[in-house]
Design goal:
- The protein has a single domain (3-131), classed as Arc Repressor Mutant, subunit A (Orthogonal Bundle).
- Helices cover 65% and strands 16% of the residues.
- The chain has 6 helices and 5 strands; from the N terminus they run αββαβααββαα.
- The strands form 2 sheets. Strands 3-5-4 form a 3-stranded antiparallel beta sheet. It has a two-stranded antiparallel ribbon with strand order 1-2.
- Helix 2 (21-32) packs across helix 4.
- The model has no long low-confidence stretch (mean pLDDT 89).
Length: 132
């Protein structure tokens, strides 16, 4: 499967709802930056305002975000997640954390002995203790 196909393919991130990677990452950016506008999102993601606007429209139709006009400036539209959008964004973050953890675990186990992994995690744990 090509990467372009992968990001366009709908997936379930743990809520039972299907959404593609571009939409869920855009939703997560909105959830983490409530009130963000199309131009700001386009700059964050290095995409055109038109592409972000199309994705935002899809998210709005699915009930994940709301558009609100900025007070005193009817031209600027701010984007906010709905409760449904917040739930999906948080499920997506959990999903990504689990998948990344699985991938890292597989890669570490493939290239390291159990003893090397024990030593690595012992050092990381000690390092975290020092930082805290």
């Amino acid at each position: 499967m090509l990467y372009g196909d992968y990001v366009a393919e709908n997936q379930d991130y743990g809520t039972g709802e299907l959404i593609n990677m571009v939409e869920v990452h855009t939703l997560t950016a909105i959830e983490e930056n409530p009130g963000v506008n199309i131009s700001e999102l386009a700059n964050m993601w290095n995409r055109t305002k038109g592409a972000i606007s199309q994705t935002a429209t899809k998210l709005e139709k699915k009930g994940y975000i709301q558009r609100r006009k900025q007070d005193g400036n009817a031209k600027t539209v701010m984007l906010f997640p709905t409760e449904k959008g917040i739930r999906l964004s948080q499920a997506h973050k959990r999903y990504d954390a689990i998948e990344v953890s699985k991938t890292v675990d597989e890669l570490l186990r493939a290239g390291c002995t159990p003893e090397e992994l024990d030593t690595f995690f012992k050092v990381v744990t000690k390092y975290i203790e020092i930082l805290l």
